[in-house]
Amino acid sequence: MERPAWAPRSIDISVPSVSRIYDYYLGGSHNFEVDREAARKAMEFMPGLPKIMQANRAFMRRAVRYAVAEGVTQFLDIGSGIPTFGNVHEVAQAAGPGARVVYVDHDPVAVAHSQEVLAGNADADVVAADLRKPHEILGSPQVEQLIDLERPVALLLVAILHFVEDADDPYETVAEFAAALAPGSLLVLTHASYEGIPLPPERTQGAVDVYKDIRNPLIMRSRAEIERFFEGYDMVEPGLVPMPRWRPDTAPEDEDPWGFSGFAGVGRTA
């Protein structure tokens, strides 16, 4: 397998990555054949996966614009993946010039491409780190330089918590971040769930098994389990809902049925 010029020498291009699979679903070009093969296998069971990811990104952009309108101009995007058109820093800085963004990911391709995209942008940077180690993220030079934790921050956990197993206590991780954020901060979250998928769970399980096979288990939580991540936050209307129903720009009825898979919500610290 030939290594593309943009691929860091340190990565094994024979092993699939969830961030590169996500990039493939969104029509990006920073993925390898091994990622595309895994994505196509998952799509054999859930052909609407690209539509789910598009709905996910559309929600993220609406939530970022909402945050800026509410006066929150600092963004910490964890599990940010590979930057694509209309990513957080573009939306935030277009809505509020001077908005500051720190991306966090542990995939070397995502980090390297983020560095390339952000070159020359003094108000945005990227950290190579793992969501499960909040102290390393919050204490990183990039966060210390760009994010003032004494002021409200929008914490984005978009399509990432469903890759954190219960054994790693994702609820405690989210609570640790919440404890570090100033009053008025926002939690912006999306999460996969069997609820809303227009297929029987046994059919969906085939796609879940693909992620398990590549050692990135996809944890499908219920709406009630996802709501627990917002403990300590006041939910922003309309609450925890399918992605197209969160403050939509267009009629939700016009959205692809696959876009209603899983849940999205925004919470505010008191």
Report on this structure.
It is a single chain. With 270 residues, the chain is α/β, with parallel strands linked by helices. It has ten helices and seven strands. It has helices at 18-25, 33-45, 49-69, 88-95, 108-118, 134-138, 141-146, 170-180, 201-213, 223-227; strands at residues 74-78, 100-105, 124-128, 154-158, 186-191, 233-235, 263-269. A seven-stranded mixed β-sheet has the order 3-2-1-4-5-7-6. The longest helix has 21 residues, at 49-69. The chain starts with 17 loop residues before the first helix and ends with a strand. The mean pLDDT is 94.
List the helices and strands and how they pair.
Layout: H1 18-25, H2 33-45, H3 49-69, E1 74-78, H4 88-95, E2 100-105, H5 108-118, E3 124-128, H6 134-138, H7 141-146, E4 154-158, H8 170-180, E5 186-191, H9 201-213, H10 223-227, E6 233-235, E7 263-269
Parallel strand pairs: 1-2, 1-4, 2-3, 4-5
Antiparallel strand pairs: 5-7, 6-7
Helix pairs in contact: 1-2, 2-9, 3-4
Q: Classify the helix fraction into a percent range.
A: 25-40%
Radius of gyration: 18 Å
Helix/strand/pairing category: alpha/beta
Average pLDDT metric: 94
Shape: globular
The amount of beta strand, in percent, is 5-15%
